[in-house]
Amino acid sequence: MPSDTRTVIVTGAAHGIGAGIARHLAHAGWSVACADSDADAVQKIATEIGGVGIGCDVGVESDVERMVAVARSRLGRIDALVSNAGISKFEPMATTSLASWNRVLAINLTATFLLARTLAADLKTARGAIVTIASTRAHMSEPDTLAYSATKGGIVALTHALAMTMAPDVRVNCVSPGWIDTGKHGPLKPSDHAQHPVGRVGRPDDIAAAVAYLLSEAAGFVTGAELVVDGGMTRKMIYT
Ligand SMILES: NC(=O)c1ccc[n+]([C@@H]2O[C@H](COP(=O)([O-])OP(=O)(O)OC[C@H]3O[C@@H](n4cnc5c(N)ncnc54)[C@H](O)[C@@H]3O)[C@@H](O)[C@H]2O)c1
Fold it and tell me: Taking the model in full, what pTM does it have?
């Protein structure tokens, strides 16, 4: 790796938005460590982009520490973190067990704290940056999304708390995606696109471009911010 190559850990990089972020950053010249609980799939993405693939459950403290140690030794140093891994588990309140609630919190919220704490010295030395991935569900809800929405609201708050805690060396910002099509829910309908003020559902690269901006020098005066990337949906008046 050339010594001026910037290095980043992207969690949840095996599929969906995380894979899009890993590809986008690799094309922009970053060396990328791809971390994911799907160890086989993450290795495939890493091989495709010339990065490092590391199997890891971000909801487990010891696994986060092991993954960061592997990334550090393989990449030489760590300049940035994209904390993207998440599970969208929706279930009725009455049947949501405490174990299920805690597992969603561990992966979607606590993992970002563990990653930031483990990487704090690396990022301080590098005068680096963190981007977290929340959701427009931090601000608006459907029924039966209690744990997920709570974690995403938590990520927005954790982002500004980390920004103040890690200043002035490390900038910490958040991207809140709206509906991003990752191919998981079958073909989209014309009405899915039409309801968005920009005329289409989002794509992983819409989020990747926002992440790349927040990691870049161009965002040098931006910290503690939430960048909503949702095609305008959270600004759309829906009363009829
Ligand atoms: N797709 C959307 O419309 C949308 C909207 C708002 C926010 N988001 C957020 O974006 C992020 C990515 O979502 P996505 O749609 O790409 O989801 P996805 O399910 O396609 O990808 C999530 C990735 O995280 C990995 N992962 C899950 N649990 C893990 C764990 N314990 N440890 C390590 N890796 C784990 C999965 O294996 C997968 O590769 C999530 O934080 C999600 O909440 C997505």
Answer: 0.98
Total domains, the chain? 1
Cβ neighbours for 55, distance < 8 A, ≥ 6 positions apart: 35, 36, 37, 38, 39, 42, 43
Q: Which residues does 128 contact at the CB level (< 8 Å), separation at least 6?
A: 78, 79, 80, 81, 122, 169, 170, 171
4 C-alpha vs ligand 1 centroid, how far in Å?
Answer: 30
pLDDT tens string 100-141: 999 999 999 999 999 999 999 999 999 999 999 999 999 999
Within-domain flag for 236: no
CATH number at residue 101: 3.40.50.720
**Rounded distance from Cα 182 to ligand 1 centre (Å):** 10
Q: Is residue 180 over pLDDT 90? A: yes
Q: Measured between alpha carbons, how far is residue 57 from residues 3, 97, 147 in Å?
A: 29, 21, 19
Ligand 1 pocket: which of 11, 15, 132 to mutate (most atoms within 8 A of CB): 15
